[in-house]
Each structure stands twice: as structure tokens, then as C-alpha cells.
Amino acid sequence: MKVGVIGIGLIGGSFAKDIKRIWPDSSIFGIDSNEAHLEQAIQLNLVDAKGDYDNLTDAELVIVSIPVDVLVRELPTILDACGDDTVVIDAGSTKKLICETVASHPKRRNFLACHPIAGTEFSGPSAAFEGLYEGKTNIICEVEKTAFKLQERALELFQKLNMRIRYMNPIAHDQHIAYVSHLSHISAFMLGKTVIEKEKNERDIFDMAGSGFESTVRLAKSSPDMWTPIFEQNKENVVETLEEYIENLQKFKQLLLDDDYQNVYNEMNNTNRIKQILKGIPLTKS
Amino acid sequence: MKVGVIGIGLIGGSFAKDIKRIWPDSSIFGIDSNEAHLEQAIQLNLVDAKGDYDNLTDAELVIVSIPVDVLVRELPTILDACGDDTVVIDAGSTKKLICETVASHPKRRNFLACHPIAGTEFSGPSAAFEGLYEGKTNIICEVEKTAFKLQERALELFQKLNMRIRYMNPIAHDQHIAYVSHLSHISAFMLGKTVIEKEKNERDIFDMAGSGFESTVRLAKSSPDMWTPIFEQNKENVVETLEEYIENLQKFKQLLLDDDYQNVYNEMNNTNRIKQILKGIPLTKS
Fold it and tell me: B129-169, pLDDT tens digit by residue?
């Protein structure tokens, strides 16, 4: 199988690693605006060679894993360049604008809109690893707009990766993901900011942080290049989640100010059931 | 060595496990208001026998690991019961009220105020494990108020556990810990609450949560029995951290509303240095 990976970082690189494992005879070319990353991807054996858009025409599978602003800009050109038998899948954390962008593209049937819910706070080719997608959820939007034969090819990959497929419309995707992913990132970034501002002596953070702060703030290590355009494209939903989060924090603060510790207890006790909700989530690489 | 552990959960039980490993000849008795936990602690070999306050008089080391409200209530009685050669250490997440409570106790010199910065989101005897304290920070307050010989005995334990000791006054402790620990817990609890409220269909959380939400919300599994009195005792500092956190979230929301994505980027980019700050923190059991 001839495979193209456009954007060869954590997401694209991890797909490439697994594809090599599943289909050892596949040939993978990489395209990346960052020349150093491309060199590194070749050295790490993530891809066999550099490529360009001319190579897309006879590729059977193309994975586009680039920041969502670049994705919206490049996807029409990528579809222009791909062949009739090419399936192009993306990995963007937003889906509405991306689907709208290619809605009337003549090669819309070559595109499958995907969001594999997987990642770490690290980025670049060196962050890629085999098994990132094992047991993870992959949200597919507007599946009916993709040619059936091409859907099948993509699904074969996801099945071999042992991913769990969920079909959703792009608007619902963007609403749900704002809560379970985008808000978590802002919460972590602002937690990190608040602590850094206060603790001018970084040695104190380091010494006192313990395990709690570290895991809660983990996502604040994430790439601003990736996340800024996500928040831009999903602004409306993200602002809504932020308003609800801020309101809950203000209520909690008021309970403390009122010395209403019975309700402080109740707030935490009611949220404890997150334990049961999360029980089914596969453990992730820490 | 005769050791007493008052409150035989994650914290006390993990101390007991390590003490058994370091001093196999030690005899450890457990005291707990929860009879089932006490039985379980014996079955798990965390302690050798049940005890009561009468046993404290000839104990060489007593670890008090109970919720901080119970600690403030019980500590004077525990000191009353202990012998001249007993060192009593606590593990409370607040220090000011605890130190004030025993400031003029006739056996103040038998008490060493400690806060081992270690734990997981789990609780009870079954959550205890060997090595919880390995490489972790232990904050000791008002060390000068403890008899030198008794300090030495406690420090020998911490040294054998490979803990890093930091001396701090109780007021500074409570201020710093509000930022690096207490705020993280509220941030996680309210994130969990916001998502649960919105996502009535818990299947959606489960399917979409991925790795990001899971780690950010992890602390929302923590025990309300333990955390309510911590927030009560450290109310003033906790409210201050919450105000700053809420303000940062509101500023971030405003940047989104203003479409000021350059500053959205800057906010995240500036906080990215949390990576370097956290680099030295030992990896924790996930």
C-alpha cells in the first residue's frame, strides 16, 4: 500500500509506525513544512522518503495530521491532487469548519473526516510511538459522504489498530469535544499560569507539586501552535464551556466564603462518580 | 521499634509497609475509628495488631494520618497519652491550625509537624503501597519545637524512605500548598462537575474523554471526607487562589471573545515552561 502522511509529528508519525507494523510492505512518504521534522522522521524510520503533493495521485491512503488552521487551508488542494482511488483522512480536533470547507469539493467522496481521540502532551516526530491508537475512540463525521470502497479501506486500518468507531455529525462533535477535551486544556493552562505567577520561586513549585498538581497541569505542556486554531475554530462552544466552568468555580468559592462545608462536601461527593464514568477508559501512557 | 499508626489508610498504611520493610523486627499497632479498615489492615499485614491510646505510652514512633479536622481534635489527646520518648508525626495537608492547636501543649516537644507530599486519588488500607514516599518531598514545620533526639528518629525514617526534607513555617506552608495542591483539586472537581452536568449521556464522556480529560480530572476522584476539612482550615488561602484562577480563566475567555488569537497563543506559550519546572518531579504511580 502506498501511503502519504502530511504532517509527520506525534499523530501522523504514530499512524506511520503502526501502518509499517501492520503492512510491512507498505511504502510511506512524508510531507511536512518543517524540513527538520521530515529529516528526523526518515531517520526514525517513520517514513521511507520525502514526498510532495504530486505523489498523492497514486497514494491509496493519505493521513493529514496538521494544525486545524493549516488543515482548512490545505485540504482542498490536497483533495485536488489526490487520485480517484485515494482516501484522505484527517485527524483534526474540530470537525464543523473542516467539513464545511470541503462540502462542495468535487472530490468530497475521497475524504473521510476523522478525529482519533488520542495523543500526549508531547509533539514532533520523536513523540510518535507504536500503539498510540490501541483501544482509543475514533470519531467519524459525515461518513455517508465518503465513497463506500474508500470508507472500507480506512476502516480496515482503524480495525487493525483496534480503535472504537463512533459516528457523529460535525456540530455535535464540536459541542461534545469542547467539554471533554478543549475545556480540560484551558483548565490546565490557566492552572499552570496561576501557579507560575504566584510562585516566583520555581523551586517551590518543583518541591511541593507532588503528584496532584503534576497530573492536573499536564496538558499545559501542549503545543500552542496546535491549540490556538482549535480554540479559534470552536470558539462558540469553548466559550460556553468556560462560562459554565467559571460559574461552578465561583459557586464553590461562595460556599467556602459562606462556611457552608456541608455543600462543599456534597459538591465533591457528587463529582466522585467520575470514578465510575472513567473506569472504562483504557489507561494511557503517562 | 514499637510503632503506632493512627488512621490506617493510604498514607498511614504506606508508611507501615515501608517501616516493615526497613525494620522487619518492628511491631506496629493500628488505631482507626473504622473497624472494617482496621480488620483489613491486619489482613493486608500493614499492622500486626489493633491498639488504643493506652498503647501510645511506650511507642517510639506514632504516625497520625487522619483527616485534618479529626487531627486537630485528637492531637492533644494523643500527645497526652504518649510517653516521654515517643515522637508523634502527622501527615496533615494543612499546618497552621495544627501547629497552633498544640503550641502550648506540655508535650509539644514530642510532636513533629509534617506534610509528606505524596498520595494518589485512592484511599483506605487497600490503597497503601510500598514506595509511595520514595523521592517525595516532606515539609517539616517548626522543627525547632521538637526535641532533638525525637527529630533525629523521625528523620532517620524519612532518610531511609529517600524523602527530600524542606523546612518551612506553617503560614508559608499553607500559602504555597494552596496553590500547588489545593487549587489543583478544586480545578479538577469543578471540571468533572461541569462535564458531568453537560454530558447527561455518560457514554459520551467515556467514549470521547481520551487521555487529556482523564488526567486533568483525576483528582476529582479524591475523598470529600479528607478534602472538606482541608479547604475549611485553609479557607483564606484557597479563596485567594480561586480568585486568581477564575480571573485568569475570565481573561482567557475574553481573549477568545475578542478574537485575539495572538494573545491566546502567548498565554499558552508562556505557560509551556511548566514543562521545565516539572521536569524534576519524580514520576508517580498512575
Answer: 999 999 999 999 999 999 999 999 999 999 999 999 999 99
Chain A residue with the nearest C-alpha to that of B226:
A265
Cα–Cα nearest to B234, from B75, B90, B95, B64: B95
Q: Which residues of chain A make contact with B199, given a CB cutoff of 8 A? A: 176, 179-180
Mean pLDDT value of segment A231-253? 97
Interface test with B, best of A123, A169, A194 (most B CBs within 10 A): A194
- Smallest Cβ–Cβ distance between B194 and the set A183, A188, A277 belongs to A183
- Domain map (residue ranges) of chain B: 2-171, 173-278
Q: A with B: how many residue pairs have Cβ under 8 Å apart?
A: 310
Angle in degrees, CA A191, A196, A197, rounded to 5: 100
In chain A, what residues touch B239 (CB-CB under 8 Å)?
Answer: 253, 256-257
Q: Which residue in B201, B215, B227, B269 has the most chain A C-beta atoms within 10 A of its own C-beta, making it the best mutation to test that interface?
A: B215
Cross-chain residue pair B271–A192, CB shorter than 8 Å: yes
- CATH number, domain B2-171: 3.40.50.720
How far apart, in whole angstroms, are the C-alpha atoms of residue A31 and residue B8?
Answer: 57
CA–CA distance, B76 with B101 (Å, rounded to integer): 8
Q: Do A283 and B286 touch (CB under 8 A)?
A: yes
Q: Look up the CATH architecture of domain B173-278.
A: Orthogonal Bundle (1.10)
At residue B278, the pLDDT reads 77
**What value does the CA radius of gyration of chain A take, rounded to a whole number of Å?**
21
CA distance A286 to B23: 33
Distance of CA A76 to the CA centre of its chain: 21
Residues of chain B contacting residue A278, judged by C-beta atoms under 8 Å apart: 205-206, 209, 214, 217, 221
Q: Is the Cβ–Cβ distance between A218 and B216 less than 8 Å? A: yes
Contact check, Cβ <8 Å, B278/A206? yes
Whether B195 and A180 lie within 8 Å, measured CB to CB: yes
Average model confidence (pLDDT) across chain B: 93
The separation between CA A66 and the C-alpha centre of its own chain, rounded to angstroms, equals 10
Task: Dump pLDDT digits (tens) for B82-140.
Answer: 999 999 999 999 999 999 999 999 999 999 999 999 988 888 999 999 999 999 999 99
How does residue B286 score in pLDDT terms, banded at 50, 70 and 90?
Answer: very low
pLDDT mean over A87-114: 98
User: Cβ contacts (< 8 Å) between A243 and chain B: which residues?
Assistant: 253
Instruction: Chain A: give the shortest CA distance to residue B211, in Å.
Output: 6
Q: So what's the pLDDT on residue A200?
A: 73
* Residue corresponding to grid cell 477564575: B246
Q: What is the mean pLDDT of residues A139-153?
A: 98
ipTM of the complex: 0.90
Region A77-88 average pLDDT: 98
Q: Which three cell numbers stand for residue A28?
A: 510511506
Cβ <8 Å between B189 and A280:
no
In the CATH hierarchy, which top-level class contains the domain A2-168? alpha beta
